[in-house]
Amino acid sequence: MLQLKRFLSRKESESGQALAEAALVFIVVILLLAGLVEFGWAYFHYLALQDAAGEGASYGIMFSTWHQGDDPAGTYYHPDPNNITYRAQNESKGGIIDWSSTTVNVDAPFVTPGNFITVTVSYEHEAITPLLSTWISDGTITLQAQAVQRILSPPPAP
Hints:
It is built from 4 helices and 3 strands. It is α+β, with helices and mostly antiparallel strands and about 160 residues long. It has one domain (about 20-150). A 3-stranded antiparallel sheet has the order 1-2-3.
């Protein structure tokens, strides 16, 4: 009988313990899920940037019309919308990334067959999780994807 009294008295004193533990664990689980969602969203943006860089590099190796002669300033410009920047920014028409805010850099020192072309696409990913945005300055993470390919076609005749 004495053991039953001890058991019952212990149960009464620990009546709120399970609720307190569940509340603490619930907070940790919510934080982990929020981090997982943020990581997935950033990774999805990175994959879209990788596809865009690959599309720009693929266009650059086949059509060297994106280059207007030998510009000593290193500026690559072509008024035709079919250039590397246009191809990279219009690779995906979905509304997931604001492609007008992406930065496309092209590095091709020599536009001749056998040389390499490097296309780098950068994007400022805004954190969707309020907790993460407090840890990161400005609430943004710079995502960058790069594609390097060998130039295949000869430059056009002048």
